[in-house]
Design a protein that fits this description.
single chain, about 280 residues, alpha/beta, seven-stranded parallel beta sheet, three-stranded mixed beta sheet, 14 strands
């Protein structure tokens, strides 16, 4: 049976990659985009989705997948971050909610009080749980994903190294669970394939590889793959951010119980990500 899906964040890195997967699997997709959204990167797919720009014209859908987010990397104010990550998605959910709706949220593994981004994301899902106990709510708690053409620190480091630039780093002892983009997409598709077996209520799924690597290890692997001098990495040249967690790692056992398995090691994921720079 064809299902109607409302997707937000389809112009972002995760969302546009997931959009391609949904199209391949013949879902009926309504893509909500805000005024000013750049559609160039999804232009080849626009004739295969229905674009929605006005919240007053939202359709009745079976599944609402929320991937839109503002990280605060573009100097957005606290109010702008909360408007995008809290108020706006709540208003959309209010307009499309009905007793048989499945809401799939994209959350962060960062601690609530680390920054305004993580705070807004945690406040949002808590408000959803409080206001919509009659929905099937699936909260995907994502570790740091990366892949070709993304905006992660993997690609940042790679581009700087290829340009021969020095990069000021912290000591790089923070450990992160990095997960390749295709594994993340497969996790969401695994959820979609299991929805019929889920009753209403809250489900929370950590999405990560289950392995944590230090920033120093990751950057060193990037250097080796690109055959760049390690001396460009200036360890200890900048302090860590206040309150930054030293270790973030997912327990993917709940996802695995649904039949999902991460397929990409850090090495294979990095090589695929950096392939165009080799």
């Amino acid at each position: 049976m064809t299902r109607n899906i409302l997707l937000t964040g389809g112009t972002g890195y995760l969302g546009r990659n997931f959009l391609k997967v949904l199209i391949k699997n013949d879902y009926n997709i309504y893509l909500f985009v805000r005024d000013g959204s750049d559609l160039k990167k999804i232009e080849p797919y626009l004739n295969q989705v229905t674009i929605i720009k006005n919240a007053s014209s939202l359709p009745t859908v079976d599944i609402f997948i929320h991937m839109a987010t503002v990280y605060g990397r573009m100097n957005e104010t606290n109010d702008e971050i909360f408007q995008s990550n809290f108020n706006w998605p709540l208003s959309l959910l209010e307009k499309v909610s009905h007793s048989n709706l499945t809401f799939i949220n994209t959350d962060t593994s960062l601690p609530r009080d680390f920054n305004n981004y993580s705070k807004s994301k945690k406040y949002f899902i808590e408000e959803v749980i409080r206001n919509y106990p009659y929905l099937r709510i699936i909260n995907m708690i994502c570790e740091q994903f990366y892949g070709p053409g993304d905006g992660s620190f993997v690609n940042f480091i790679a581009k700087e190294l290829k340009a021969g630039n020095d990069i000021e780093m912290t000591e790089g002892l923070q450990r992160r669970d990095l997960i390749y983009i295709d594994d993340v997409l497969n996790a969401y598709m695994t959820i979609l394939s299991n929805i019929n077996s889920m009753s209403k209520g809250l489900y929370e799924y950590p999405v990560g590889s289950g392995h944590a690597f230090s920033i120093r290890e990751v950057a060193t692997q990037v250097c080796e793959i690109l055959d760049c001098p390690h001396e460009h990495l200036k360890w200890g040249a900048k302090p860590m951010r206040e309150g930054e967690p030293m270790k973030l790692i997912a327990d993917p056992s709940l996802m695995m119980e649904l039949g999902w398995q991460p397929k990409y090691s850090l090495e294979s994921g990095l090589k695929l990500t950096l392939n165009n720079l080799l």
